[in-house]
Amino acid sequence: MSVIVRSFAKINLGLRIGPSRPDGFHQLLTVYQTIGLHDVLRISVKRGSGIEIQCDDPRVPRDESNTCFRIAEKVMNALRAQGRVVIEIDKRLPVQGGLGGASANAVATLLGLERALRKPLSAAEKLRISEEVGSDLPLFLIGGAILGVGRGEQVFPLPDFPAMRCVVVTPEVGVSTPKAFAEWDRIQGKLTVLSVSDRMNELGRELSAWLSELYSSAPSGLVARRGRAGNPLLALVRAGIENDFEEVVFPEYPELGEAKRALMRAGAKYASLSGSGSTLYGLFGARPAALLAVTRLRKAGWAAQVTSTLTRVAYWRRVYGS
Ligand code: C5P
């Protein structure tokens, strides 16, 4: 039996890098938001054994360095299942793009295998397997707007805000996340542990203030409505959140800083690097404004496309395809 799964991308609405930990990871505080751009995976379990990855994109590895391969092995073991796993990837998202493409592909593989084998894993097992494969996999087990803490693997659903238009710019460069973290450590070397923690606490307080504002205007619902501060997503980004990776990635790839400025000039209400890049996104109030921005950006030579933020409900409605 084979199952089709849409593997949606994420953006980061603010990302603060904290102290590096004894295990080599960094503490993180971020808000993840799923968006409508996606890859499509077909997961099949056939007679035999082994794991086979099929993909036309030469940049996608077919061996155990692929997150899909690693998670498939773990899922088959956890379910004590037998068979030959075939994972066909229709790659539409950029590789090494900061949109969590490879991580989303892995979670899609897990979800597809559960369905193909008709054997569910417990929520706790799915979380454990996902976080073993990478820090930004667990968010895709929740979807919508999600608070990420720890090394990014501890995930907490935030209230779903109304969808907003989102213009995504995908420059042709790939940014290595471990290298970006290493560069961050280098430039932050002079900061004391205390001031690094202070910076984390600062974003934590901004997020708390934003949530308390949301809930004092919509105390009973899980869906954040337009309160006094207007669109809650814009209220969040206007709280001054930023992505720390911009500080190390923009000096190394000046064209990415230029792309962010181009998004702002094209009318974005907020623009930022996603993850460690190289993708940038801009948030727009209305579809015509976003479409106009795409036209302007493309004229200026940028690869740009329009999508929307994806609420949790919309995410789960669309994950399993046909
Ligand atoms: O968890 P993931 O496989 O995505 O991490 C890739 C690399 O990025 C890690 O090996 C580590 O070097 C770096 N990283 C980090 N702190 C995090 C997440 C990732 O230093 N919170």
- How far apart the termini lie comes to 13 Å
Q: Which ligands appear in the coordinates?
A: cytidine-5'-monophosphate
* Average pLDDT for all residues: 91
State Rg.
20 Å
What is the multimeric organization of the chains shown? Answer: single chain
Number of strand segments: 10
Q: Which sheet architecture does the biggest sheet show? A: 6 strands, mixed
The poorly predicted ranges are: none
The proportion of strand residues reads: 15-25%
- Overall, the morphology is globular
Helix content: 25-40%
The H/E string reads EEEHEHHEEEHHHHHEEHEH
Tally of helical segments: 10
Estimated structural class: alpha+beta
Question: How would you describe what is shown here?
Answer:
The protein is α+β, with helices and mostly antiparallel strands and 322 residues long. It has ten helices and ten strands. Strands 1, 2, 3, 4, 5 and 6 form a six-stranded mixed beta sheet that branches. A four-stranded antiparallel beta sheet has the order 8-9-7-10, sandwiched between helices. A hairpin with a 6-residue loop joins strand 8 and strand 9. The protein starts with a strand and ends with a helix.
